[in-house]
Design brief:
It contains 8 helices and no strands. By secondary structure, the protein is an all-alpha fold. The longest helix has 25 residues. It is globular, with a radius of gyration of 20 Å. The mean pLDDT is 93.
């Protein structure tokens, strides 16, 4: 799409390309649909903001706020992963880490910003979060999986049905996959437990950056 995400940018680019004769077949006016799409995104953001933060509008926080938070954060994370892989991004790890970090800061105080069934399982297994009961954890995992599924259909739709297989990369086998997935899932879950759960090492400001950085580690 060009990555405008801003009506002012869309209008500026539209004006410049419309007046440039070497852009054959283009002209002023394409910013109209872009502006409509961007304003739709803005309205969706306001809607989700109200859904996950009713306290800002005089309402009461409920369990549905936490579940929507987990769905939204996981959706954005998986969507970013898929778009980076399909787009063959040379800096995918940094993009994915930025997505995770931003959603942690946006939603961490709503649901804890797990966005990962493995993280939820680790927090439950640690026994240091009594509010996260097993039934609640199962609900979290369900919403995380749903968010991931919706994200996968979204990136496939953006790329006209294209996707990518899950399995060992070229030149690797299942033993390599096992070690990589175990070790780097451990890194992520361990850092979450240390900077977001432990009362002794919990970080009040840098936790999102620390957790997001785990993506670049792996």
């Amino acid at each position: 799409s060009g990555g405008c995400f801003n009506p002012a940018v869309a209008i500026g680019l539209d004006l410049s390309t419309g007046s440039a004769p070497h852009f054959e077949g283009t002209g002023f006016g394409w910013s109209g649909p872009y502006i409509a799409y961007e304003l739709t995104g803005a309205l969706l953001a306001a809607t989700f903001f109200k859904l996950v933060r009713p306290g800002d509008f005089g309402g009461e926080k409920s369990s549905s706020c936490e579940l929507i938070s987990e769905f939204l954060g996981t959706y954005m994370l998986v969507l970013t992963v898929g778009l980076n892989v399909l787009g063959k991004s040379p800096a995918g790890a940094f993009s994915i880490a930025a997505s995770l970090t931003s959603m942690i800061y946006a939603l961490g105080d709503v649901s804890g910003a797990h966005f990962n069934p493995a993280v939820t399982a680790a927090i439950v297994a640690s026994g240091r979060c009594p509010d996260l009961t097993i039934p609640k954890a199962c609900c979290y995992m369900g919403m995380q999986i749903l968010g991931g599924i919706c994200a996968s259909y979204t990136y496939a739709f953006i790329y006209s049905g294209a996707s990518f297989p899950l399995g060992p990369g070229k030149g690797f086998n299942w033993a390599s996959v096992t070690i990589a997935e175990v070790v780097f899932t451990f890194v992520l879950c361990y850092v979450v437990l240390c900077v977001a759960v432990s009362q002794h090492t919990k970080a009040s400001h840098m936790f999102g950056l620390a957790i997001g950085s785990c993506v670049t580690v792996g």
